[in-house]
Amino acid sequence: MSIHSLTLPDGTIQPVVIHTTPSLRSYSIRWDQELPLLNVPRGTSMAEASRILNRHRRWILRRKIARERYKQFLQAPPVLGNESHLDSIRIGGKPLFLHWVEQDQQCLRHDPSRNCLILAGPVPELREFQEEIRAWMFCWLSSRILSELDFWVKRTGLSPAEVSIRTTRSQWGSMSRKGRLSVSWFLMSHPDECIRYLILHELVHIRHPNHSKEFWSQVEQNMEDYRKVRSTLSAFPHYPDWGSVLPGNRKKIRLAWPPDGMFP
Q1: Using CA atoms, how far apart are residues 17 and 4, in angstroms rounded to an integer?
Q2: Which of 12, 197, 199, 246 has fewest C-beta within 10 Å?
Q3: Contacts of range 234-238, beta carbons closer than 8 Å, 24 or more positions apart
Q4: In sequence order, what DSSP letters do the residues of 113-168 get, joined into one string?
């Protein structure tokens, strides 16, 4: 592993970690903690690694700016006298603040007026609450997915055969030819209108598997401002490692579909 100094398009110097992975066939680049990480196959020269990084300078700069804005976005609000701020994550397009308050019995409660999760327990350690927070996040996202599905199924007559949430970062959602709808876990970072658009988009794929004129025409018939909403689907957000997995450290959870009594 080595550290390379990369000059970004705005003239700033960005340290980049270069790591050699013997099993790799091609390079990969991502942000790891606070620095970009370039993974390269064994035998890749430093000159070649530098050329790769130079090709991705604009991407690195965009992600750096996005991360800095995200940190500002998650600045903690004032806490009550008996609370301590532990962390912040993005839910529904807004920061969700994680506050701890001392209490003998451990529990978690949501304060929507301040957009906070109150973590009550004897020890102010976030790791003690991680599974409970993931379970709350899962309930939040799954309820919105099922609500939007109920709306669009009634309106379009299109219904998936199966619905699941996955920890995918390559796409927000997908619809297989067998009608299996998958939604990215990280979609929870976006407002409700983005979830509404994503569900409609994937349902229309049941009738039009590709992005043909007919596909976009049906999307627009149901959501006239879809272009505006679509443009707000930004890059995948940064989440702490504990928040990047589903409850139980799973990569996929299948939802009950259709829920009893949701629609005739």
Answers
A1: 6
A2: 12
A3: 234/66, 235/62, 235/63, 235/66, 236/169, 236/184, 236/186, 237/70, 237/90, 237/186, 237/189, 238/31, 238/67, 238/70
A4: TTTEEEEEESS--GGGTHHHHHHHHHHHHHHHHHHHHHHHHHHH----SEEEEE--
Confidence check: pLDDT of 117 > 50: yes
- What is this structure's pTM? 0.70
Give me the domains of the chain, ranges plus CATH numbers.
2-73 (no CATH), 83-128 (no CATH), 134-255 (3.30.2010.10)
Q: What are the b/e assignments for 171-203, b being 16+ CB within 10 Å? A: ebbebeeeeebbbbbbbbbbeebbbbbbbbbbb
Q: Is the pLDDT of residue 80 over 80?
A: no
Alpha helical stretches, state H, the chain: 46-55, 57-73, 130-156, 192-207, 213-222, 226-231
